[in-house]
Amino acid sequence: MNCPKSFRRRLLQKDRGYGGVGLASRLIAPGERHRKCFYCSAASGSASCRRGTLTRYATFYLFPETHASVLKHHTLIPTSQTSPTRINVSLPVHEVDPLQDPRWGAFIEKHPRSSVFHTISWLNALHRTYGYKPIVFTTSPPGADLQNGIVFCRVESWVTGRRLVSLPFSDHCEPLVDSAEEMESILCYLQAFRRSGNWKYIEIRPLSSSLCRTSAQEVFQPSTQYYLHTIDLRPQEDELFQRFHESSVQRRIRRAERAGVAYDSGRSSVLLAKFYQMMLLTRRRFRIMPQPGKWFRNLVECMGDALNIWVASHDNVPVSGMITLHFKDTLVFKYGCSDSAYNRFGSTPFLFWRVIQQAKSDGVQAFDLGRSGLHDQGLIVFKDHWASTRSLLTYLRFPAPAGSPLIDETREPKLAKRFFSLLPKSVQKAAGEILYRHIG
Length: 440
Hints:
By secondary structure, this protein is an alpha+beta fold. It has a domain of 193 residues: Aminopeptidase, CATH 3.40.630.30. The protein has 11 helices and 16 strands. It is globular and about 65 Å long.
């Protein structure tokens, strides 16, 4: 079926004369046929043209960047008037640089669903370490307060391809959009943005299922699933302790106290060095690539008081550690590690309990324990023992992944894990420094 006539009025092209990065629209003369379909890239008049829910034309307006945060202005207009699944998209979509535009920081501070992964500090750490360039898509015009936004990082890799991810190395990143019309406008624009920029796919990692309630679910399909555990910290401390699993949590905490396990917390380079050495041990034990050391150094520098390093020790020997991130009334357990030779002392439950006690004194109401792979039964059971609430995280992609609709990215090939475990420690560390950015 041919594209609608109204579509032939605009042709999207790359504008090589605008710094090599801009997009421009070229007006098609009356009667001239368009060369490619905007949605499916089929040739003009081709029987393979997939006219339907997403067939539309777009006008792109370029202007001098008087404000570094405003990149381009875009308008999406639906043109299919006869399709039964027509999407009513009428709002303009704008691109914003959250590292430059002060509106983003003000917006996430007041939005009720924002998390630590939306913060400028987190985005800045990703940018410094891995070179990811963040971008926000919003229907709020330049100069006005932001009313909505979905933040992404542009991951450009010669190993895994060019991708838009919201957000890499983040357990979840809720789209901060409150109306269906705004959501449709942004998601439909993203589909056009992917094609014009030749991105491999777009991935969104919502905390809730609200994204699935829009008609965009026809193209943004589930790709990966995880469990998310959260502890409600509002009950009194004694009541909370009694809810924990008796043998796996309560007894191990008391055992650690009897064994004289102590802990330190802060952001010093000494604590970071102790934590990172245990992180290397843990990653080697599970035969997975370690994060580069500069990632943690940048996190400490960028996050400031929102980050805390916790290290438990027995006879002055570091035995377990974790990094937590604090935003509003939520504490996030982001990284954990331990020396398995000292597991008998129960240092990990001990450290978790000390973190919870401190969080309650700071007025924190929820402890986000992070995601767990659906097949990682050991980690799932450990988090269940803390009287946590388990929910399902579903990541969405456009286009949908080929083959199985859901990808379990936590089940790495056993041969690859075996090979990685045989590498010398120095080689493992170097591999993380070089290759880790490609898996974001």
